[in-house]
Give the backbone structure.
Amino acid sequence: MSSAAVIRFPGSNCEFETARVLRYSGIDTRIYNWNDIERLSDNRADAYVLPGGFSFQDRIRAGVVAARESIMDLVFEEAINGKPVLGICNGAQVLLESGLVPGWKPGSVQGALAGNLAPGRSGYLSGWVHLKASPEAIERCPWLCSVDQESFPLPIAHAEGRFVFREEDMDRVKSHIGLKYCKENGSASSGWPENPNGSALDIAALMNAEGNVLAMMPHPERSFHLWQVPPDIGGPWGDRRRNSSLKELEELPGPGAVIFKSLAKYLGVE
């Protein structure tokens, strides 16, 4: 049976939800603490997930302390060997701080997730956004291989989610885009509020060159079920939510399920 490892750091707070939806997707999943290096080394998984939260209280800057923990050496090795790795929110911050994403020179930090910038406000924000996957990501990313070309909504909850890069790297980073913030109808963002944090190139998720490592700021584990979608959200997912019976709401998948179903498809889970 295909397996996944969810890595819990001090301050993680989404590990149980993440493990649960992976199991719902047919993947045997265990949670490993940041200091369970020997246990994880003896039980290598088929995929690895760094969940959301506030690892080590976001001291210095979000993700930087966790990125230097010894267990990340194991995750780094597995990623370089082609295993799928997903970082969600704080996990995405850890992946950028570890140099796995964008990964032009693995181990070297080549981008950052900076503080949110929006008209009239900054700091922590939460809400729902619409996203669209890039054709390149659908083609080569295990976490996005089942996503279609339509836009879909996911929730966000972060204070440092703005992807930034050096000016000379901006053209190069375009081929690494996994998900972009967009309008409800899937058309390109015109800035805020579609792009909630000022992220460069409207990036919501970024992958490495091989596509097996994905750093995403939205939370797919918080929208795995249709009942988790707000009734007042626009677009097809809002219509589906409003028109479903209570029984259907208990059974039907939400927009975030496609991330984990993509992994299941990639791993050959029936």
Remarks:
- The domain at 3-225+255-267 is CATH 3.40.50.880 (Rossmann fold).
- The chain has a mean pLDDT of 96.
- The chain has one domain: 3-225+255-267.
- The radius of gyration is 17 Å.
